[in-house]
Every structure is written in C-alpha cells, then in structure tokens.
Amino acid sequence: MIVKLPFARDRLALDLRGLRVRALTPSAPPGRDAGELVSAALDQPLAGPALVDMARGRGSVTVIAPDATRKASLPEVLPAVIKRLQRAGIDEGAITVLIANGTHPVVGPEAISSLVGPLPGSIPVIEHDSRGSDLVCIGDLREELPLRVHPSATECGLLITVGTVRHHYFAGFGGGPKMVFPGVGGYEEIQANHSLVLDLSGEHAVRDPGCEPGVLVGNPIAEEIRRAASLRPPDIAICLVEGREGGVAWAGAGPWEIAFETAVERVRMWFEVPLTGEFDLMVAGSGGNPTDATLIQAHKGLDAACRFLKPGGEILLVASLDEGLGSDEMAPFVDDPNPESILARLSTGWVQYGHTTLRIVEKTSRHRIHLHSNISPEVATRLGFEPVDDPAVLLNEWRERHPGAQVGVMAAGAVYPRTP
Description:
Layout: E1 2-7, E2 10-15, E3 20-23, H1 34-43, H2 51-55, E4 61-66, H3 74-87, E5 95-100, H4 109-116, E6 125-127, E7 136-142, E8 145-149, E9 158-164, E10 167-168, E11 172-173, H5 187-194, E12 198-199, E13 206-207, H6 220-231, E14 236-243, E15 246-254, H7 256-271, E16 272-273, E17 279-285, H8 295-306, E18 309-318, H9 331-335, H10 339-348, H11 352-366, E19 368-372, H12 377-382, E20 386-387, H13 391-401, E21 406-410, E22 416-417
Parallel strand pairs: 3-21, 4-5, 4-9, 5-6, 9-14, 16-22, 17-18, 17-21, 18-19, 19-20
Antiparallel strand pairs: 1-2, 7-8, 10-11, 12-13, 14-15
Helix pairs in contact: 1-3, 8-11, 10-11
C-alpha cells in the first residue's frame, strides 16, 4: 500500500507494502464549497434570526477570524459574511476583520492578505496583539484577574466569530468560545488560563486529568474559556467542521453556545474512533502547511497519534517544520529537556511553550519517535526524536524486524479515541 502524507505544501509518498496497514481515518465527508455552506448557515441559523435580519441597524460590525495556524477557508467564508452585512445596509467602512492571534505574533500585511483573500478595499483587517496596550477590560476572568480583550471586540454594534471546531490536546476543543478568549484576549490572562493544565494542589505538580482532547466538563481550562466568552458573547458564531482531507464539510451559525455544541457533536461523530487496541508501529503526519510548519503546531498531530500507540512503540512522524520550533520561549526548555526538570520549572513559573516542550519530551520518553522533517537534527535529537533522512530506510527496517506487523496510519486528518 502506498500512503501519501501531507508535507508542507506537497505530499510525501510512503511505500508500506509488506506491512499490514490499518488506516485511522475520520468518517467525515470530503470538504465542500465553504462559501455555500456558510451562506446557508447564515440564512438558516441553528437558532435566532438570520444574519441579514440581525445586522440591520447595528452600525458597526467586527468579524473575529482565526490566524493562519487554524484552517478556516477564510477567502471563501468572509465574502459570504460580508455580502449579508452589505445586504443589511452595513457600509464597508463599518466592517472590521479582527485576526485572533491569541499569543501568536503578528505576521504583517502580506501574510494577512494571503490569509483572508481579496476583500473590499475599505474593510480594515487588524491583527490582535495580546501584549498591546489598548486592550479593554470586560470583567474578571477569576478573582483579582481582570479579563482584557481587543477593543474592536467591544466597540462594535455586532460581533461575529468564525472558527473551525476541532479537538484540542488540553482545552477539549478549539474554535467556538476560543475565538473570543484566548483568541483576542490579553497575554497574562491567556497564560493564567493555560497554566490550569497543571494541578499544584499536591506535593508535586501533575497535569490535571481533565485537560484532555474531547473533554469539556471537568476541564478547568475549557470551563474558564466558556466563562470568559460569556463576558462578551458573540452575537452570532459561525462554527466550521473540516472534511476528511481538509476544507469545510459542515457549517452552523447562531448563538455561540448552540453553534459550538452542535459542531462539537459533529466533530465527535466524524473524528473519534473506538480504541480497539494499541499499535506497536504507527505512521502519522501533521496535516501539511500551516499545521506542520512548526513543532508547536505539528505536536498536535503527534499527540493524537500517540494515543493509539503502545508504550515503547515506534512511530514515524512526517512534518516539514520549515519554521523550526515555533517560539523562542521553548529554547530554555530545549536546552534541558528532562520531563521532571521542566515540570519543576513550570510549577514555579508558567511558560506556555515550556508546557508544549514538556508534552513533547514526555512522548519521546515513552515511545521511539522517528522524525522526518527539515528541523535541525541536533535540536530533534536533544528533544528525544530520532531524525530520519529517508523514511524508506526505516520502513525497510520495520519489514525486517516486524514481518507482517500491523501499522496504524493516520494520514487523512487527526482522529482521537472515542471520548467516554
């Protein structure tokens, strides 16, 4: 069997003949025309009025959209939204597109233009900067911790969010309320929220067992995100669900709680599979560009695959990592990549991407992870990966060492064990 895995903007063909392949694939249909799906969702929402009716007389509109690390087919989706706002009498100059960078750095006009596609020239596109000085307080995230957001999210007559709902490895699911927070929230508040992944109530810091993909109830991060979104709820949320190999297969719109919960059920149905046994060998990708451009993003695909891998099992991870680690904040932790020492450091001072480094080295300590990428072999080795120049050589070794072995393959999008 020849398997083609996304790699950067291309595909990498792997010859798995001689091995018994079990594909771990979502049951989602292929992606469809995203503009048509969103148009139908806005005209016939899950609840509440259609966007055209809701927008009349609102004066100004802000549309929160994800950055390039979250695929959302914006060049097709945004025109469908703008067309309905114009139909409602909203002037182009009164519409703002706000890019929900979270803690990610701003990327500049050229990259943003590629992200959103052609828009009417008078519609400004603003990148959120979580460290900006102009953020405004909308209430308290928790006691003695004010929640600040971008002013464009509050100083508008109508707030719309666009986001793709998918599993998130510690926040339960992405999209939905995450477009408001952490999407356009303040840096300190985001760090405080993400630090809830560690339970510091005992003698030693441990990861909170509720902070897992697919878990919303009993997940302190997810529950706080929902409370934060309720402080400035979107007037209408557009929730997207990906197709089997990308694109958009489903769209729903309406009040954010209803749109998000409906999308979550769709994601569970399409992207969760029964865990009938664990594999000794696996092959996995990270979805191609942009989700395999950095180790921070590519780790999410690895996290999904490792949930099907036996302790001590081997996995071939294919990810371009053309942009390296993804954050300078990882560097001190990469220099001392011992899980125990990272956990001790995080318990005294939270660093978001220190936690990502912890999750990576936990996996490389538990499994043999062969990495085919463009990242420095020295950095990969320091993190516990085994760099692979030619995947065919490794696959030949597998045939010799494990004749007839069953290999789990996660090539067409990440799937997760079914959530109880």
